[in-house]
Amino acid sequence: MFGDIKFVCVGGSPNRMRAFAQFMHRELGLAGDGEELADICAGTDRYAMYRVGPVLSISHGMGIPSISIMLHELIKLLHHARCRDVTIIRIGTSGGLGVEAGSVVITDTALDSSFKPRFEQAVLGEVVVRSTELDKDLAQELLACSKEIPDFPTLIGHTMCTYDFYEGQGRLDGALCSFSSEKKLEYLRRAYDAGVRNIEMESTAFAALCGLCGLRAAVVCVTLLDRLEGDQIRAPRALLGEFQRRPQRLIAAFIRKRLGVQPQTPLPTP
Amino acid sequence: MFGDIKFVCVGGSPNRMRAFAQFMHRELGLAGDGEELADICAGTDRYAMYRVGPVLSISHGMGIPSISIMLHELIKLLHHARCRDVTIIRIGTSGGLGVEAGSVVITDTALDSSFKPRFEQAVLGEVVVRSTELDKDLAQELLACSKEIPDFPTLIGHTMCTYDFYEGQGRLDGALCSFSSEKKLEYLRRAYDAGVRNIEMESTAFAALCGLCGLRAAVVCVTLLDRLEGDQIRAPRALLGEFQRRPQRLIAAFIRKRLGVQPQTPLPTP
C-alpha cells in the first residue's frame, strides 16, 4: 500500500495536514476535488494521516515527545513497505527572530535552547547526544523553489527548538514567569547572534531521528510574529491564514517540480 | 463562565476526555444523556475541553511540551475566572512495572528517567530544577475511594516520566534500538527498585507546574501491560477498553463523594 511513497510531509495540526493533503491533491491534478480524502489513522485520535499519490501528509501533535512517537511508527512503516529515496519535510509555524512576520525559514541546523546543534536523547537513563544537521542540498533546492513564487520572503537559518512554549521560549505571558522583559530580550538577542531566525518545538528531535534513519529531511516553518517585538501575534486573521499556507505552497511547488507536474491552478495570491 | 469549577480532569486523548465528560454527566445525574456536550475548544484542534457541572474535562495531547502549553493556558483561565479550591487530576494510561496489567497507580511522586524526583525546566537557556511531589492527602483520599469499588486493583507508587515512548522507556520495538534485552531489563528492574510502578510521559511537568501554581494535583493512570514481561500489549481489545475506563470510574466516584452525590447508575462491571 505504501511502497511508492516518495514524500512525507508532517505538521502539528490534524486540520492543517488535511488541508495540505487536499491542496496537494489539486496541485497534482488528481481526479476529484480531494474533499473526500480518508484519514488512514481514523481509528486513533493520536495522529491523522492522508495519502495523495506519492505523498503522505501526517499530523504529529505538539512537541518533541509527540513527534518522536509518530516518527518511530512512520519509519517502521516506510521500512516494512520497502520505500526508497523518501524525502521528509516538516511544515509548521514558528516565532521569528529579527525577521518580518510571514517569512518562511528553511532550517539548516536545529539548535537546542543553549544554541547548541544537538539533541539529547535519554536511553536507559543515560543521555546520548545526536546531531541535528539537516540536508543542505535539500534546503538549497527548497530556497531555489521559493524564488520562483512572487512576494514570498524566504531564508535559510538556524531554528531553535524548545520543550515548551512559554518559559522555554522566554514568553512573559504564561501562567508563570520568573524573568524580566530585559532578560528575555537579552536571551533572544543572543539567540539571534547565534544565527537563530525562528523558534519552534520539534526540529531537533526530527532532524536527529530522520538523520540517523537515513531520510533526507527539511524543516520549513513560517514565522507568525517577530519575538524581538513582542509575544502576541498581531497579524489580522486573514493574513495569518495566508502566512500558514506559505509552507504548504512552497512544498507543493517543490514536489510538483520533482515530479515534473505543471501547476494545475494559478497559485493563490496573498 | 468558569468561576464555579472545582475539578479539572486532564488526559491525552480528545476522544477519551469526551467519553469521560459524558460519563461524568450521567454519574452526576444531570439532565439529558450527555451526548450533546459541546467542545469548548472547537475552534482549535490542539485540545478538546468539555464542561460538566463543576468539572472540566480537557485533553492535553502526548508528552511534556504538549501538556505544558495546555496547563499554562488552563491556569491563566482559572486565575482570571477567580476559581478557588480547584483539584486537578491527570487520568491516563501507562506501562506498569511489576504490577498486574489493569492496576491503577496513584502517583505519590513523579520521577525523571534517572529516578530523581525533579523536573528540569529550561528558562532562558538555563536549567531550573522543580519539585515533582504530588498532594499526599489527595492520593490517600483517592486510594480510599478505590477500596469501595469491587475488583479494582489500586496502589500508590512512584511514576517515571520520559520524553519518548521508545528509546526513553527502554522499548526494543522502535525504529531505532541501541541496547539489548538484558540492558533493558536491568534498567527497568533498577526503576522498580527505586519505587517506580508505572511509566508515562507527562507526570513530572504536571506535578511541577500544578505545585508551583498552588493546585492540589493527582496523577491516576491504569497500566496496560507489565513492562518487565514485554513491550507489546497482550490484553484483548474489550478488556483493554475496560482498563482504560478504570481511572474514569475512580475519579467519578471521588468527585461524587466530594459533592455528596449518590451513584445514578450501577457502576459498570468488568
What do these coordinates show?
The structure is a homodimer of 270-residue chains. Helix content of chain A is 33%, strand content 25%. By secondary structure, the first copy, chain A, is α/β, with parallel strands linked by helices. In chain A, the strands form two sheets. The first copy, chain A, has a five-stranded mixed β-barrel with strand order 4-9-8-5-10, surrounded by four helices. The first copy, chain A, has a two-stranded antiparallel sheet with strand order 6-7. In chain A, a hairpin with a 2-residue loop joins strand 2 and strand 3. At the A-B interface, helix 2, strand 6, helix 4 and helix 5 of A face helix 2, strand 6, helix 4 and helix 5 of B. Chains A, B: Belongs to the PNP/UDP phosphorylase family. Chains A, B: Keywords: Glycosyltransferase, Transferase.
What is the assembly state of the chains in this entry?
homodimer
Which secondary-structure class do the elements of chain A indicate?
A: alpha/beta
Distance between the termini of chain A: 37 Å
Rg of chain A, Å, rounded: 18 Å
* Mean pLDDT over all positions of chain A: 95
What is the strand arrangement across the widest sheet of chain A? Answer: 4-9-8-5-10
Query: Which residues of chain A form runs of ≥5 with pLDDT under 50?
Result: none
Shape of chain A: globular
List the secondary-structure elements of chain A in sequence, H or E: EHEEHEEEEHEHEHEH
Q: Give me the count of strands of chain A.
A: 10
Q: Biggest chain pair contact, residues each?
A: A-B, 50 and 50 residues
Q: How is the main sheet of chain A built? A: 5 strands, mixed, barrel
Tell me the fraction of residues in β-strands of chain A, as a range. Answer: 25-35%
Helix content of chain A: 25-40%
The number of helical elements of chain A comes to 6
